Queue: 2 jobs
Job 1
Amino acid sequence: MPVNALYTDLSDYYDLMCADIDYRAQSHAVQRLQQLFGNGGRRHLDLACGTGPHVRHFLDAGFHSGGLDINQPMLDKAAIRCPEAHFAVQDMCAFSVAEPVDLITCFLYSLHYSATLERLTACIASVQRALQPGGLFCFNAVDRTRIDNRLFASHTVQIDAGHFTFSSGWHYSGAGERQALRLRIEKTTGDQTLTWHDEHPMVAVSFAELQALLEPHFEVHVLEHDYQRILPLSDGAGNALFVCVKR
């Protein structure tokens, strides 16, 4: 998959763009899920790891953790944040590991970067091959049938380099296997404002379709998108946390 130019150019600002994310809560929740559903092992791989904030929390919790991403500038920053971890430039839809791991994560809806159902299927197969028996695959996803194109999430950050506003929202046409993640970034310094617009092609899939892809390889648990409590998915929910145990 080609590297997105926006993130290459703005890799220094990636952590600002994700400043409203509670990486600690997400990491600790998955560590608990590994204890409850997984094999208890502590070898961890984070897909689409970016600058490595989740990997840092897994390392601090005693995991042997590493990550992969397609963006080298991101991984350069991850290596600074987590010098004891191993990072690799790999496509999550066609990756391999030297030794099987116990836990694979894919946070921040990044599984949707597979972009097509064919590549999503290949990603799931790569995960299955990379896991130990009883290993766990955890990720979050959005149901294409529940997307509201009107909704955008925004947050602002003030640093010495300027005032930033980050906005993002899902968009789905209502048909087909492609949806988009639409992004807007504004940087204001003094009286000058720079604006970037971007649209990332993402795979569109319903939860039922996603379960059908996973179930030949995994025992699948679909939970509320809640990193504080473990609850079954409620009717009508459009976001979910998938917990998948290798068969």
Job 2
Amino acid sequence: MIRVLLAEDMHMVRGALIALLNLEPDIEVVAEVSSGDKIVPTARQHKPDVCVIDIDLPILDGLSAASTIRETMPQVRTLMLTSLGRPGTLRRALAARVDGFLLKDAPPSELADAIRRVNAGERVVDSQLALAAWDRGECPLTDRELEVLRLAANGSDAPDIAVALSLSVGTVRNYMTTILTKLNGRNRVDAIRIAEEAGWL
């Protein structure tokens, strides 16, 4: 029996997934959580074989939780679910060394099959998403430029970003100019949109 921990913040979706997975003869959902901060302690308590984790979770995102599981419980496999088929998101998931990555609108049979394959030690990636990631180039922004853009996307202006990152306001403005140039964005809002659509933020 494959023991599964399911992390999904939408109650109806989580309930439906649990019902579907528990119909499988070789899969049992042993624990469920609705926020990312509960994944690691719940995994320690229930010792699942596979954690099925939504990427976009409150408090702590799914990829951060998956990275902690990889570091502290390497025997536990991680399968990420997302409703956003962005190549950049897949790249981030692979960088976090997750075992599988599946779109939420995949048929239920695909999810059960992915759990079995991940449990067997395979790496499972949605084929259409893998092709898109292959076609899409790497993120052109440096880590610091991404930090600046993330703060801007959260509504911070140049002085706020400067304080948060211990930079001068002029340096922050220089970063924003470089970001706009690299992303070919018309303005800050456009640059944020481009980066979000690519899954880089």
